[in-house]
Design goal:
The protein has about 220 residues and is of the alpha/beta class. The protein is about 40% helix and about 25% strand. The strands form 2 sheets. A 6-stranded mixed sheet has the order 5-4-3-6-7-8, with helices on both faces. It has a two-stranded antiparallel sheet with strand order 1-2. Helix 2 packs across helix 3.
């Protein structure tokens, strides 16, 4: 496992973004783990988060793209932090772009904020986590309506690796099949489990035998094929 992935897992735990216990998800599923990207709230956390996204995008898609697009609202700070990190780490100037929930009719008009999109732009989409792929259903037509762009891929922070509500495939696999572009994550839940299982971190074992059994049982029931 790459070093930045190990550091990112620890970062999620330190930031109280990744929690273990008993949680009820929006889908109604009972899950032994929960991720809340809204817990990244400080400048230091956002700077580090941008660096992890930048490294994952570099490893999966390279840097031959023009625009980083983050769907409103959580995607807005992600695009800003990550484009800054790409500039600092790799010396590459990527434009950032996000959509508004409502079209603005005065001043900086339109549905986009940040960079405008141009025909031929190569775009990477960035999100916190994708459970059902619903956000891409909203994002894809917005992008295509603005210009004739090429979607290079989607990057999320955590692949939960569970099947969608309507199929046995994961949300990331469904996106690949439906839209024809790759979808990847900084880390998968399998990598998180492998790294933390019976391994003390900051004096605590986050995934012991009992929790590992709960995670295995969860994926036995809800894991993607």
């Amino acid at each position: 496992m790459e070093q930045y992935k190990k550091e990112f897992i620890e970062f999620m735990v330190d930031s109280d973004v990744l929690k273990f216990g008993d949680f009820t998800l929006k889908s109604g599923r009972k899950s032994p783990f929960f991720m809340n990207a809204g817990a990244y709230v400080t400048g230091t956390q956002l700077r580090r988060l941008g660096e992890y996204y930048a490294k994952a995008i570099h490893d999966n898609y390279g840097l031959d793209f023009d625009v980083l697009f983050g769907p409103a609202y959580k995607g807005i700070p992600l695009t800003v932090a990550t484009t800054m990190a790409i500039s600092e780490l790799y010396g590459r100037d990527i434009r950032y772009c996000s959509n508004r929930k409502e079209v603005k009719d005065h001043g900086d008009t339109g549905i986009l904020l940040g960079s405008k999109l141009k025909d031929g732009d190569r775009v990477v989409i960035i999100e916190d986590v994708t459970t059902s792929g619903k956000s891409i259903e909203e994002t894809f037509p917005i992008l295509k309506a603005q210009a004739d762009v090429e979607i290079v891929g989607l990057m999320v922070s955590l692949n939960r690796m569970e099947r969608g509500l309507d199929s046995d495939q994961s949300a990331l696999c469904e996106i690949r099949e439906k839209y024809g572009f790759p979808a990847n994550a900084i880390v998968s839940m399998a990598e998180v489990t492998e790294y933390l299982y019976n391994r003390p971190y900051q004096g605590k074992v986050y995934i012991d035998d009992a929790l590992k059994a709960s995670i295995d049982a969860y994926y036995e029931q809800y894991g993607a094929k």
